[in-house]
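Final paragraph of the annual report: two paired records, presented back to back.
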Amino acid sequence: MSRVGRKPIAIPSGVKVSWQAPVLTLQGPKGTQTLRLPEGFSIEQSDKELKLLRPSDEKRDRALHGTFRALIQNAIVGISQGFQKVLEIVGIGYKAELKGSDVLLLTLGYSHDIAFVLPQGVKAQIVQERGQNLRIVLESIDKQLVGQVAAMLRNLRPPDPYKGKGVRYADEVIKLKAGKAKGKGKK
């Protein structure tokens, strides 16, 4: 058995689970998520925990067992607590502004501003504190979606390896390269 797949999934208070094969519906204080399980997989529900059961010991079923258990766990955490990614914008003149509730207007050193439309289900907040870099806080109940949006925003201007300017994750460490050695070798 998969070590991850056989672990029970704790259900926090305030989360409702309904299982009608092959669809698992989860409702919580932050929202609702549905997961479609592969054919043959089933859910065993007790008081405050779920167990994912696989149909056989075939290689495909063993691989999907742990994967879908993790997806169910992430959905439960998402609807009860939510997920958050924090991005930092580093660079002189680099700015971010929220237009409405779903459009980020970014100035990242190009000849034009970039209007980034946030997908449904992702909320953004811009935090500017004195002496700190500009931060964009992304929140969602879907772990995959918030991670994908953060990666797309970072990809608009990845951190420069020489000065460190650009869009980076808040906890990301950038190892800066040395620049040209000025006057080296001249007499």
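The closing record of the year follows.
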Amino acid sequence: MKVVIYTDGASRGNPGNGGYGAVLIYGEHKKELSEGFRLTTNNRMELMAVVKALQALKKDNLDVSIYTDSKYVMDAFEKKWFLAWQKKNFKNVKNPDLWKVLIDLYHKHKIRFYWVKGHSGNKMNERCDELATHAADNGDLKIDRVYEMENQT
């Protein structure tokens, strides 16, 4: 069976409060994930959504289809940008901490990324947006420690 994952990130201000949402579907099973952070960026939340979704998988070597409205995330893998970033040790690449984790997770599975236009009526993408924005706007916001440490003034 294939695992299908939908992801989205959101931030209120860039930087600002942020959140991610992910929906994982495996056969008849569906799992939703979300968390909010007090200071982060939209791109970090887009990345975090994919990272957390892949970390939730209990087995390796799965066929995974990831649907995202982030060209930033999709193109990094589909256009193989991440290979050049690794060779340069992520010099001048934002969010290297998340990219390194995501690349390790990417190698554990057979992953294909698909782009979904945001806010276009795709039911699962809309659900991820709801999860991400709700997490950014409500509840106990976590600390995105790496972002806050790197951006202290």
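The first strand starts at residue 2 and ends at 13. This concludes the annual technical report; the extension proposal builds directly on these records.
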